[in-house]
């Protein structure tokens, strides 16, 4: 915010209310209602309060809206949304490494806390990163969850080692795109699959060593 908008934002912050897409029942996208009087989340000592500039959309978001989270109600409305990027507005007493005004991105925890489809989100600083200056707000908001998923899969579940080969199914998808890049950073030989010429080129641009077009026969 700047000028009048900045004053307007602080007005909402001071009165403890914010705009948000809330749900009071499970269902389709129609259960999401835009309101301007949702209570700003209460902060824990290890939290930072982020004013969101952009939010991402993931399959887990519609799954949460459809039933995979705390049951919402009129008395206990919920906010979905996992990935976001924004500016730090407040910091808790136990927060280290972050200050008001820092540009950050994060994947929250909508299974236990309110999500990011709102003006403000309270999130533990230990799961927050500094937004790369080379990324726009919208680009940054698409990264956290797929990056975490790809990293945990390769480093904690698969325990890949430098020089190994990695097969990435659907290399041009959100998770696949991140897996290709992380795989190359880890020193792997990355083999990706794709279905169209443009997605084949995208996988190569991301660094895939080999791309299999799964619409064509594998054998000559």
Automatic annotation (TrEMBL):
Pfam families: ADH_N (PF08240), ADH_zinc_N (PF00107). The keyword NADP applies. InterPro entries: ADH-like_C (IPR013149), ADH-like_N (IPR013154), ER (IPR020843), GroES-like_sf (IPR011032), NAD(P)-bd_dom_sf (IPR036291), Zinc-ADH_QOR/CCCR (IPR051603). Keywords: NADP, Signal. SMART domains: PKS_ER (SM00829). GO terms for molecular function: oxidoreductase activity. SUPFAM superfamilies: GroES-like, NAD(P)-binding Rossmann-fold domains. The keyword NADP applies. Residues 1-20 form the signal peptide. Residues 27-220 form the Enoyl reductase (ER) domain. PANTHER family: QUINONE OXIDOREDUCTASE. This is Enoyl reductase (ER) domain-containing protein. It comes from Rhodosorus marinus.
């Amino acid at each position: 915010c700047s000028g009048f908008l900045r004053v307007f934002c602080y007005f909402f912050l001071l009165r403890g209310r914010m705009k948000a897409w809330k749900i009071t029942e499970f269902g389709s996208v129609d259960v999401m209602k835009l309101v301007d009087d949702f209570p700003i989340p209460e902060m824990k000592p290890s939290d930072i309060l982020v004013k969101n500039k952009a939010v991402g959309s993931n399959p887990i978001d519609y799954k949460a809206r459809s039933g995979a989270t705390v049951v919402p109600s009129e008395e206990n409305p919920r906010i979905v949304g996992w990935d976001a990027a924004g500016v730090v507005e407040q910091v808790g007493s136990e927060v280290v490494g972050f200050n008001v005004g820092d540009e950050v991105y994060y994947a929250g925890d909508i299974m236990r806390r309110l999500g990011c489809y709102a003006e403000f989100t309270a999130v533990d600083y230990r799961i927050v990163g500094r937004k790369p200056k080379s990324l726009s707000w919208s680009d940054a908001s698409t990264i956290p969850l797929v990056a975490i998923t790809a990293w945990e899969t390769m480093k904690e579940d698969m325990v890949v080692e430098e020089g190994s080969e990695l097969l990435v199914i659907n290399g041009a998808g959100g998770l696949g795109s991140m897996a290709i890049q992380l795989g190359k950073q880890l020193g792997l030989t990355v083999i990706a699959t794709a279905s169209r010429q443009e997605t084949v080129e995208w996988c190569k641009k991301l660094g895939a060593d080999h791309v299999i077009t799964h619409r064509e026969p594998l054998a000559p």
